[in-house]
Specification:
2 domains, 9-stranded mixed β-sheet, binds fe (ii) ion, 25% helix, 17 strands, 10 helices, globular, 2,3-Dihydroxybiphenyl 1,2-Dioxygenase, domain 1
Length: 361
Amino acid sequence: MTDVFPIKGVDHLEFYVGNAKQAAMYYAKCFGFTNTAYAGLETGERKVTSYVMEQPGIRFVISSALSGNHPIAQSVVRHGDTVATIALEVPNVHEAYQSAVARGAVGAIPPTQQSDECGVLEFAAIHAYGDTLIKFIDRSGYPNGFAPGFVNRATVTSSLIGLVGIDHIVGNVEQGQMERWVEFFVRVLGFDQRMHFDDRAISTEYSALMSKVLEKGGKTIININEPAQGRRRSQIQEYLDYHQGPGIQHIGLTTHDIVQTVTQLRQAGVEFLPIPQTYYDNLDAWVRETGLPVDKFAELGILVDRDADGYLLQLFTKPVGDRPTLFFEIIERHGSRGFGAGNFKSLFVALEQEQAVRGNL
Ligand code: FE2
C-alpha cells in the first residue's frame, strides 16, 4: 500500500519559553543536549531568540520572544513554557501541505522557501490541537545547517547522557475531543491507530484518563489523552487547567541503558516521580528471572512492564516547568511496543500524591 502522507520522521520539537537562554542551559546541563545553532540579535534576528539543542536522534528548538506583543510571548502568558510545534520531515512540502489542507487541515503557514548561502529550506505548517502547530520541513536543499538566519555552533558526535531518540509524543485534549483528534491524525496525516486504553484500563479511582496511540511507519508515535470521570480531578484536567487548553503533555525519550541515563539525569538535578518501595516488593517473578537489577531500579525509581512482544523499562520526570504541564518519560524497550499499561495504577497513585501536594486533587 502506498502511504497517503509520507513522512521521514520528527525533524524537531520547538518550545516556546519565557527565557530561551536559561531553558537552553537546563537542557544542556541536565539532559545532555548540545547547542548546535543559534539565532538572535547577534545574528540579525530582531524578534526571536532561538537555541537549537541536539543529541543524536533528538532535536529541540528553544525559542523566546524579544517583545511582549510577539505571538511567542503571548503563548508564554497563556500556556507557560510549552512545546508549540511538532516539526515533521517530509519529502515534499508542497504536496504535504496541499494534501493535508485538502483533507480538512487548517493551514497556518503556506509553503515557504527560505534561502541563504547554505541552500534552500522549505517549510509549511497546519494547526493541530490547541495552539499546537504541525510543521512540514524539507531539508534536502539545506543539508549543512538548521535554517537560514541561524549560525552553526557546536556539532554533536555522541550523546553525553545516553538518550538516542524520541519514542513518542503525547498530547492532552479536552474531555470528548480525543476521537476528533485521533481522526485528524488518521484522515489528514495517514497515521494508523494502534491501540487504545479506556478509563477502565487506566483506573477508575485515580486520575482517570483515556488514551489512544497513533503510529506512522513504525517509528513516529503520537498519543492523544483526554480526561475521564474519576473520583478525583483527572491528571489530564489538571494539565488543561494550567496549560489553559490542549497541548503536549510529555515526550518519551529513548535510551539503551536506562540505569546509566537516569543515574546521570538524577545527578544533574532532574526530578522524577517517586515510586513507593512496595512497587518493587510486589514485582512479578519474571523481572528477577530475566536478571534485571531490581534493587537498582528501586533506587532510581525505574518501572518495568511486559506484554506479548517483550518488556520495557520506564520512568517519568516531575513537570519540568513551574506549571504542572510538560514532563518527560525515559524509556528503554526490549521488544515491547506498549506504554507500560501494567504500571498505570502505581504510577497514578504517585501522580495523585504529587497533585495533592499541589492542592489540585
Ligand atoms: Fe509515555
